[in-house]
Design brief:
The chain has about 475 residues and is an all-alpha fold. The protein is about 75% helix and about 0% strand. The protein is built from 19 helices and 4 strands. The strands form 2 sheets. It has a two-stranded antiparallel ribbon with strand order 1-2. A two-stranded antiparallel sheet has the order 3-4. β1 and β2 form a beta hairpin. The longest helix is centred in the C-terminal third of the chain and has 37 residues. The termini are far apart.
Length: about 475
């Protein structure tokens, strides 16, 4: 596909909303709050914020600039920077290939819960064992998964302007309004438990935002730092080819630094609000014990909380899962796009053919993942100590192993082979000021690779 025919965003707002839409997904709404609850709230927030403006900024700037400079999808972009290191593009493209099927599977779960609350069945969703019972069914999860996949595929099929950009301009403002509304509501909550103890949303807010250093060991701090860095991959969609693909659609006269700053701010605000929406409400109804619910927080703990709110809980529950659907779809679209773009660039296919091929692939493997909780059920201990099923294996390979490897290799490519000047020249080619230039050079050459290597060693169970 020639550069002249390549689609592009109509303006910087479209790009920022699309990129922010990619970043604001299940990682923010689901993963960020439970990590914040697990890792001493305020300390996790502090680590995350520092990493966003340093580590995250360096990786985000690098990938978007590579995309715009080469006008290529991730599969072919890296070889344009250096032919000997084009293999990075293959690994980067493999990440969304692995993620897409199981992400759409989880998206199907969200659709199911939204429909449950919309039809006034929130009480049923709050019962013990409901989630396990649902995902263990053979056909229903597959049906919801297919519905979700079709929505994602149709959006990507419509292209960059009429599909991705248009959807992002509609859904992202609605998402922001919903998340702000529910966040404010969670702070007004108050609940007295059976033992007569009253807990309020404002007390939960203190736990969420104020760091507690009293019992923190060096090991605890390191775990929190690694969790915050791992979360950044989800939050800003780096090391999975997405930002390279989106960067390739950005016009040459767009102020990249300004756009990247806006993406960082939008994503961080939504991640913070997601925690603000969930952590105080979990504390109010379930105490500090409920805050250790882990990944099951959204599908197990929250329905119980909505149920405890009474009749109004049905409405809040429906609005919450509608918001999660919006967040999830903007992300699954961005996960599918680099795969489709890579097929188009590498094999010169039309968007229609590329979308059909990717959809069929996702349909087959997504169905297998749905069956991983019933017909294909197994348990395996992963190197990082966790025990998982088929979905967890896919997640571990893509997020814990391949993404840090892609990021490390990208740092080596830009920091030492092509040199930081390659990126600096791209982001300043219209005369823009790069105020964090020195920070960028230090991060991409030294600090980011060290942190990423530590993250990879942790995932491999070395420490």
């Amino acid at each position: 596909m020639s550069e002249k025919k390549r689609s592009s965003f109509t303006g910087s707002i479209g790009f920022v909303l699309a990129a922010a839409g990619s970043a604001v997904g299940l990682g923010n709404i689901w993963r960020f709050p439970y990590l914040a609850a697990k890792d001493n709230g305020g300390l996790f927030l502090l680590c995350y914020l520092v990493l966003v403006v340093t580590f995250g900024f360096a990786l985000l700037t690098t990938e978007i600039a590579i995309g715009r400079k080469t006008k290529q999808s991730p599969l072919t972009a890296y070889s344009k920077i250096n032919k000997k290191m084009g293999g990075i593009g293959s690994i980067a493209t493999l990440v969304p290939v692995i993620i897409l099927p199981y992400y759409c599977c989880i998206g199907g779960w969200v659709l199911k819960y939204f429909f449950t609350f919309l039809t006034g069945q929130g009480q049923v969703a709050a019962t013990d064992g409901y989630f396990t019972s649902y995902i263990s069914e053979q056909w229903q999860p597959i049906i919801w998964f297919v519905v979700y996949l079709v929505i994602t595929s149709l959006t990507v099929f419509c292209g960059v302007n009429k599909g991705i950009e248009k959807m992002s301009k509609i859904l992202m403002p609605i998402l922001l309004i919903l998340i702000m509304g529910i966040s404010i509501y969670s702070l007004t909550l108050s609940y007295t438990d059976a033992s007569g103890v009253t807990r309020t949303g404002l007390e939960g807010l203190k736990i969420y935002i104020i760091p507690n250093f009293s019992d923190i060991t060096i090991k605890d701090f390191f775990v929190t730092l690694m969790d915050a860095m791992g979360q950044l991959f989800f939050s800003i969609s780096v090391a999975m080819g997405i930002m390279v693909a989106y960067g390739s659609y950005v016009a040459d006269d767009t102020n990249l630094i300004k756009s990247i700053n806006q993406i960082e701010i939008f994503d961080t605000v939504v991640a913070f609000l997601a925690g603000l929406m969930i952590v105080p409400s979990v504390y109010v109804f379930m105490g500090t014990e409920g805050m250790s619910a882990g990944p099951g927080l959204m599908f197990v703990s929250l329905p119980k909380i909505f149920n405890a709110m009474g009749e109004f809980g049905e409405i809040i529950g429906a609005l919450f899962f509608l918001m999660v659907i919006f967040a999830a779809i903007t992300s699954s679209v961005s996960i599918m796009e680099p795969i489709v773009a890579s097929f188009m660039d590498r094999f010169h296919l039309s968007r229609k053919k590329a979308v059909i091929i990717v959809t069929v692939y996702a349909l087959v493997f997504g169905t297998l993942i749905c069956l991983g909780y019933n017909l294909l059920y197994f348990e395996v201990k992963l190197p990082n100590g966790s025990v998982g099923q088929l979905l967890d294996v896919f997640d571990y390979i893509s997020n814990n192993i391949l993404m840090p490897i892609v990021a490390i290799l990208t740092c080596i490519l830009i920091g030492w082979v092509a040199k930081p000047k390659t990126i600096i020249d791209e982001v300043t080619k219209n005369g823009e000021k790069f105020r964090r230039k020195n920070l960028y050079i230090v991060m991409i050459k030294f600090l980011a690779p060290v942190l990423l290597f530590a993250l990879l060693l942790q995932a491999l169970g070395v420490f």
